[in-house]
């Protein structure tokens, strides 16, 4: 007890020095994430700066940005390497992460969907379900995806399908073309990539968007630093969504 | 062909020494307060495992996906979710065909032993233990399958009310202080309080369950959506309660929480919690505690105060526990009980991050990774214990 009081100032000093660390996702979510953070007055680097440096600290030393692959952001946050993080809902659902999901940031909106090759005679959206095949016909539906967990959970209750899931780490759209799979489960934004590869969406699994996540310990211990960011982002969210729509 | 994997968690001498120090420090604190050690079995029946962890964090993802399934295809009932969530224990098949599990928590077997052998009609039983729990984890998550814990339980006659809660909570804090963990913070809530708030806000049955599981998964986005959708349904109820429910995950300032709790139908449930906090203040431990109404522990058996504590330098909780007045009824004895367990690996990494023991005092310098490579210093340390 006694020595604890002596050391208290030292602990407080170290806390002041430690910057609030935010893990940002590389790729399509990076620019809107930076825009959102800039919108609440954080001094963010631009994307060019971040292409060169994967860790960036603001001049006043209060915030540190860490750039990671979107799928890795929750790992940084869960293990406490970052206090906050921004990543897609798809990543959060796919993994079994022990993080707090604080906010729907409203950008990066797209959907997780099942897509199959378009039938030769026009778009077959009407005959959606039947186009996924049936186990009674002795067919196993091979599904290629970057999200095996989501695909498995989505298809598990489907008694009408017999599904084999093939995990890929990118360019899932070509799997049906080369005969690797009969269908894919993937993120669909505008649908152009799918159309270019002759695929059509037959079932929608869920809507996804960018989320603000937090480390559970940080939320308890550094709430004074985190809550201003959270509430400011929450308030800025709505105008931000409008801006995205235009 | 030989499977020579060392797949469990193991500790080489420097780490083992650090763990042993922590465990010894905690044990001493508990013994000084009249707690006796108990060694529960490693293998327990399947029935005990089912009373333990209920779904291991995956709840949120599963739920939100199932919602969509329900909307779209009308499949995925709650039983499916339960099956997916429950697979966290390791099952062992005995030679005579019985199924046993490797214990996934220590509270349940300790409570079972207390109920069977140790309850006294006129005073509570005070027990502490240290040991490993086994929990299946998702491959590649980096979470260990084995976790070392040291914990304490206050069980039986008189282990009830604010006084018992304060005994457990203050011992938890003093235990952590005794092993020189500083700046930790234990969040307090009450399992009954959330129910009271949900009731008062008009979230009954299924809606309440969904809100609860969103909170348990710390998915505040889904939580917010569920609470907003509640607004329309529950017109006649107390508006302040709906407001409290909406702000609940983001209430952290103590005065703010206390003020928010001054709501009809809720303040009665909060009274015990507030008294507990005052008593902790009086013991000079107040700065280590805060109210966090969003705490929902993974274990279903908690009935009263629930808490989990964090320390800088570790993303996982260093301590967790609560009151479980109904658990002993499963073992044929009706008795109140409360307790907690400290996660040794989390404490060790928090101490590492403090850089503390190695710098702050000579006696603990042995914890640094380098020093044990000198056998002489290692021996000197061993002999001191």
Enumerate the spans of chain A where pLDDT stays under 50 for 5 or more consecutive residues: 1-16, 122-130, 240-246
Strand arrangement, largest sheet of chain A?
2-3-1-4-11-5
CA-based shape of chain B: globular
Structural class of chain A: alpha/beta
Mean pLDDT of chain A: 81
Number of extended strands of chain A = 11
Instruction: Kindly report the greatest chain-chain contact and the residue count on each side.
Output: A-B, 49 and 49 residues
List keywords for this structure.
heterodimer, A: 246 residues, alpha/beta, 6-stranded mixed β-sheet, 5-stranded mixed β-sheet, 11 strands, 26% strand, disordered N terminus, disordered C terminus, B: 385 residues, alpha+beta, 8-stranded mixed β-sheet, 3-stranded antiparallel β-sheet, 45% helix, 15% strand, globular
SSE arrangement:
The complex is a heterodimer of chains A (246) and B (385).
Chain A: H1 2-17, E1 20-25, H2 30-39, H3 47-52, E2 55-57, E3 63-68, H4 73-78, E4 84-88, H5 89-94, E5 100-104, E6 110-117, E7 141-145, H6 148-155, E8 163-167, H7 174-177, E9 183-188, H8 192-196, E10 199-208, E11 210-214, H9 216-221, H10 223-245
Parallel strand pairs in A: 1-3, 1-4, 7-8, 7-9
Antiparallel strand pairs in A: 2-3, 4-11, 5-11, 6-9, 6-10
Chain B: H1 13-32, E1 36-37, E2 43-45, H2 46-51, H3 59-72, H4 78-86, E3 91-93, E4 99-102, H5 107-118, E5 125-134, E6 146-155, H6 161-178, E7 185-190, H7 191-200, H8 205-216, H9 220-233, H10 239-247, H11 254-260, H12 267-282, E8 289-291, E9 305-310, E10 319-323, E11 337-343, H13 344-354, H14 356-360, H15 375-384
Parallel strand pairs in B: 1-5, 7-8
Antiparallel strand pairs in B: 2-4, 3-4, 5-6, 6-11, 7-9, 9-10, 10-11
